Protein 1
Amino acid sequence: MPTGVEANIFKALMDRLLALTLTPAQAIAAPNVAFPPAGQTKPKDYLEVTFLPNRTATRTVGPGRQQHRGIMQVTVHYGSGTGIVVPLQRADQIIAHFPKDLILYESGVRVKVYRKPYAIPLPPQNGSLMVPVTIEYESFNA
């Protein structure tokens, strides 16, 4: 069980992503975790998670709960030769899995996806196409 608001927010979002069933399945590169695992080759198609919490804000007069906002970005990586349709379809699956107003809970922390996620494809680089999916969240906690 994580401690701290940001750790619980990340766990809630990551658990939700891990619950997404993709066909074919894709490996997930999580922040600060060796990818690929030792002894394995890097797959040409995979998901990469980036967690970007923002500064907190107090939305009340005096002491009160803090507003925690940020982004979890899930970048869809596809090797060359697949075109753009398949990576965009995979991005759409992630978007649909994190709908606007989705509420997640982790260890007493409530996390809300407050805007529909969106995907902005990047130009192909080094034989790979990347489609980052941006998931914006907020949480109010002490």
Protein 2
Amino acid sequence: VLRWRGSPAPTRRQWRNLAIMGLTMLVLGNGMVVLAERTVSSGLAATAVASVPLWMALFGAMRGQNASRGEWLGIAIGFLGVVWLNAGSSLTATPQGLILLLIAPIGWAFGSIWARGLDLPSPFMTAAGQMLCGGAMLIVLGLLSGERPTTWPSMNGLLAVAYLCMFGSIVAFTAYVWLLHNVRPALVASYAYVNPVIAVILGVIIGNEHFGGRDFLAMAVILAGVVVLTLARTRAK
């Protein structure tokens, strides 16, 4: 669609950068979480993903963009809030699952920081090219591991994929790529804290799930961490 609308195609160098981003963020990041969730509890997976801001802050420091004290405070508050939110769930895992959960946030954070300042096309084309590269790699890995489509997906399954394509990929992921190049790493990474809060709220609205006072307080702590990060980012300008 972007090419049809007149956007220039990525150059050979840009395709190389997009392929590396697809490998680190989508294959190592998202892919390893998917594999891990076969043998680990959802609470442990959520806590592992919440470590992304910590890794992004560390990788950013290695590139000379140190997080401020306020940003470190916001990261710590948000991470503690996510741990608290998942404290009541069963934190079970296999050794293989734990290794995959360690690789996933490191891969995503490294790819996010590494991409800053690279020769890349526009944010929309960057998101599209990265997902094309990462998706092709994931398909190859799936086939090599013996995965095969056996039945046609249900209508609910197709609608779920369509929703993820539109709102998860085209809207949210493109916004993430734009943020990577326009705001400080610590603030970009705060999405990992907001996700569990949104998941709980949607669970109540759609899945008729219930949460108590402890969950409400944990979400308040998470949002407090995001607020601290946002205020620290404003002062760091």
